[in-house]
Here is the input.
Amino acid sequence: MTDETLLSARGLNLNFGNIPALVSVDADLWPGEVLAIVGESGSGKTTLLNVLSGRMAPDSGVVWYRAPDGGLVDVHAMPAPALRALHRSDWGFVHQNPRDNLRMGVTAGGNVGERLMAQGSRHYGDIRAEAINWLEQVEIDAARVDDLPRNFSGGMLQRLQIARTLVTHPRLVFMDEPTGGLDVSVQARLLDLIRSLVRRLNIAAVLVTHDLAVARLLAHRIMVMQRGVVVESGLTDQVLDDPQHPYTQLLVSSVLTA
Amino acid sequence: MTVMLQTIDLSKQFLLHLQGGIRIPVLGDVNMQVSSGACVALAGPSGAGKTTLLRSLYGNYRVGAGAILVRHNNEMIELATASPRVIVDIRAHTLGYVSQFLRVVPRVAAIDIVAEAAHNLAPEAAHERARDLLTRLHIPHRLHGLPPATFSGGEQQRINLARGFMGSHPILLLDEPTASLDNANRDIVIAMIQEAKAAGTAIVGIFHDTYVRDAVADQLYHVLPLQDAA
Amino acid sequence: MNGYNFAYLDEQTKRMIRRGILKAVAIPGHQVPFGSREMPLPYGWGTGGIQVTAAVLGPFDVLKVIDQGADDTTNAVSIRRFFARTAGVATTTHTDDATIIQTRHRIPELALTEKQILVYQVPQPEPLSKLESSRAETRRMHGLAEYGLMHVKLYEDITRFGHVSISYDYPVMVGGRYLMSPSPIPAFDNPKMHMMPALQLFGAGREKRIYAIPPYTSVVSLDFDDHPFRTTRAPHACGLCGADDSYLDEVVTDDQGGRLYVCSDTDHCETRRDAGHVGSESPEVEQAA
Here is the structure.
C-alpha cells in the first residue's frame, strides 16, 4: 500500500467578494480511492471541486498532483496547454449536466472517440472499435454507436459522458453530482455502474454530492463542508454513523428514508 | 494462542449536539481480548452497549478514550487513531463484520454482493465460492441472480452472513448472526462459526440466542450499562 | 494612373499588408489579422485577394487572374483590368508567363515555379468555423494545436457516408503545425500545395485575415490511416483537348441532357490544343461558345 497521495491540497482559500467559499481547506486523495465532498448549497463543495481540478484559481493555497512519472506538479502553476492536455488524458470530469460535456450533433461513437483523436489516434477502425467497447461498458447498446445523442434519455446521456471521459483511462476523475436530476431508478443504475467501473479500473475519484446515500455507496472517505469550512472528515461509514460535529449530526438526522 | 484483537481501557460517549449537547456515556474501561481460534461472546442486557462495542471494534464508531489493538500483517495496529486508509486496508484483509441488517445496494445481484467481498480470488473462483455459501445457507439458486431488496428478513440476513464469511478474515465480528433464522439455518451458521474457529479465526459476537452462544463461545465478556451522567 | 496610387492602395496600407504577409510567411498556416480596406467591389468578390496582390505587385510583374480556372469570366476580366488600369502592369492568360497569379477556387494545372506567387481569394479563413462557432475558442484551439474536433468531423463523415464527404476546401495541416483552410479549391488540387516552389498567399477581405504557405512547405490533407485521402475527378477526358488528368467542368449543351466535359483551367486546355491535342467534341465547341 503506497503512502503517496495522488492529489493533495493545502490551505485553500477563496472568497467571492465578502462571501467565503473556501476557508483553509486541506484535502488528500490516494490512488484508487473515492473521496466524497458533501454539503448543502453554499457549502463550497463545488468550488472545492473546481479548485482541485484547476478550473478555478484559489486566492491562496496550493494543489499538488502526482504525475504518472512520479513527479509533483502544482496544478495552478501549470501552463494552460498542459492543464488542458491533462484534462483530456489522465484526468476526467463528469458534469452534472451531461450536455455540458457532449457534442449533441456528433454520433455517440464520435463523442467517445474524440479524446482518442485529440491524442493522435488516426485509425478509424480502431477508434470505432474502442468506442463500441466503451459504450458496452456503460451499458449502452453498441448498435447506437452511430446515433446522435439528441435522441438519448437523461440516463443514457450521463452514461455516454462517462464513456467519453473514461476512454483515455484516466487515473483521477472529478464528478459533480453525477446523478443529480435523474429519475431514481435511473440513478440506481448509474450509481451501480460508477461503483463497478471505479473498482474495476482502480480509478481515484473526487465526488461532490448533496446526497449522503450516494456518498455512502461510492466513497471510502468523506468531507463535510459548511460555508467553506471542512467541519468533519474521515471514513465514510464512521462519519455518517457516528457524526461528531453538530452540522454533520444535523445533516445525517435530516435525511429521509423511504 | 496469539491475541488477535484487544481493547485497553476503551471508553465511548455520545455527544448529541441536536439535543442540547447532552452526553450519553456508553462504554467505560472496556478491557477484553480474543485469540485466534477462539470466540468471545459479548453478554449483557439490551442497550448496554454491546453493538456499540462491536462497531467500535470495526472502526465504524469513534472511540473516546483507550485503545483497540488489531493484529494486521503480523503487527499490532492501534485502530482508534489509525488513518482511514489503514482502516480500509484492515477491513479488506483482516477484520470482517456481519451486521444485524443487510444494507441493500440497489440493482446488485445477491451472488455479486457476496462475491465482491472476496479478496485474493479471481472473479470465477469468487463466484463459485459465493454460490457454495449461498447454497449452504439455503438460498435457492433462482434467487442468486436477484437483488436482495425484496427478500425476506431471514434471506437478507443469510446473504449478509455469506458475505461476512466470504472474505476469510482472520478476525470476524458478528452482530446477532442468527436473529432472523429458523433452526435449520441456525445450525448451519453454528457449524460455519465452528469451522472458522477451527481454521484459526478469532471471533467476537453478540448472540441473543443462548443456545447458539453456548455452542460457539469459549468466553463471555459482560458489557455493563453505565449510569447516565446527564 | 488617373489619381490613384500604384495598384490603388496607398503606400501605408501596402506596408501594413506586407507586414501581415511577412508574419504569415513566418508562421505557415497561421491566420494573421489585417486592416482590410474598403475596395471598389463588395465583400465576397475577392477584396482580400486583391489587397494581397496590390501589396506585392511591382511595375515589372506580369499578372494573371483566374476564376474557377478560367481567365475569361466576368470577375477575372474585371480584376485583371483593374490592375492594368491602376498599376499599368502587363497582364497575361498564360500561366507560365505570369509572375503573380490571383485565383478564385482553383490551382493552375501547370506546375508553378520559384519565380511565381499564387494569391488565393478566401471567403472563410477559419477551417473550424462550421464545427465551433466561437472564434475565441477556435483561436485557442489553433494556439494549443487542439484539432481533435476536425478529426471528429472526418470520423462522422466516414460513419455517415463511408468516406470523407468534403469535396472542396478540404482541411490541411501546414508545416505539421497549423490546420488551414486552403480556400474552396477542389480536393483534387490539394496535393499541388505540398512542397510547391511558388509562394502561396491567402487573403480574406471580409474576415480580415491573411495567411501563407512559404515555398517548399509540407501541406498534408487530413485523413485516417485506414481511410487515406484520395483525389477525385470526373471519370472523363476533356472534350476539347483530350486531357484525362485535369480537373473538369461539366457544361450542359442542350435541353436533352447533353453534356460536355472540359478542362476547368482554360489556359491549360488552350495550350494543349495549340500543341495539337484534340478531344472528342472539338468541332462543336465553337458553336456552343
Summary: The first strand of chain A starts at residue 7 and ends at 16. The mean pLDDT of chain A is 93. Strands of chain A lie at 7-16, 19-29, 34-38, 60-66, 72-74, 91-94, 172-176, 204-209, 221-226, 229-235. Residues 15 and 21 of chain A are 5 Å apart (CA to CA).
